[in-house]
C-alpha cells in the first residue's frame, strides 16, 4: 500500500475511537439509570449527571476538538500528495496518544497524566501541520 493511502488508517482508527466513546457513554448512562443514580429526564439537559457517564460525555466532546485539526491535516496531506511515510508515522503517534488520553480520561482520570497525553497529541498534530507546511513550501 502506498504511504499516501496508508494515511487513512490512522484516520479510520481515530474515528473508531469516537464510536467506542459513544458506545461507552451509552453504556454508562444506561447503567446509571438502571442503578437509580439518574433518570432518563436527567439527560434531557444534563446539568447533573453521574460522574461515570459525565466523564465519558466530556471525553466525547474532546473527540470533536483537537481531532478536527487532525482530520483536516490528514486530508490536506493526502490531497496535496504530502502523505508520505513520515506523515503516516506521526499520524499513528497522534492516534495512539488520543487512545491513551481517552483511556485515562474514562478510567483513572488522573489529570496530570491526561494532560501530558493531551499535550503529546497537540505536539504531534502540530508536527503534522508542519509537515504539510514544508510540503506545500517545497511544491513546484
UniProtKB/TrEMBL annotation:
Primary subcellular site in the record, as a coarse category: membrane
Segments passing through the bilayer: 6-25, 68-97, 117-138
SUPFAM superfamilies: MAPEG domain-like (SSF161084)
UniProt keyword terms in alphabetical order: Membrane, Transmembrane, Transmembrane helix
Location relative to the cell: Membrane
Transmembrane helix in keyword set: yes
InterPro entries: MAPEG-like_dom_sf (IPR023352), Membr-assoc_MAPEG (IPR001129)
One Pfam family recorded for the sequence: MAPEG
Domain of life from the UniProt record: Bacteria
Keyword Transmembrane helix (UniProt): yes
Protein name per Swiss-Prot or TrEMBL: MAPEG family protein
Provenance organism: Xaviernesmea rhizosphaerae
Amino acid at each position: 500500500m502506498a504511504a499516501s493511502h496508508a494515511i487513512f488508517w490512522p484516520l479510520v482508527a481515530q474515528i473508531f475511537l469516537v464510536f467506542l466513546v459513544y458506545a461507552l457513554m451509552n453504556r454508562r448512562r444506561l447503567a446509571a439509570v438502571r442503578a437509580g443514580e439518574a433518570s432518563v429526564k436527567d439527560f434531557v439537559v444534563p446539568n447533573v449527571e453521574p460522574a461515570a457517564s459525565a466523564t465519558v460525555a466530556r471525553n466525547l466532546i474532546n473527540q470533536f476538538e483537537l481531532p478536527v485539526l487532525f482530520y483536516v491535516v490528514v486530508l490536506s496531506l493526502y490531497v496535496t500528495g504530502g502523505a508520505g511515510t513520515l506523515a503516516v508515522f506521526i499520524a499513528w503517534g497522534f492516534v495512539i496518544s488520543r487512545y491513551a488520553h481517552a483511556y485515562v480520561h474514562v478510567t483513572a482520570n488522573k489529570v496530570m497524566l491526561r494532560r501530558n497525553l493531551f499535550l503529546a497529541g497537540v505536539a504531534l498534530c502540530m508536527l503534522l501541520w508542519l509537515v504539510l507546511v514544508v510540503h506545500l513550501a517545497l511544491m513546484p
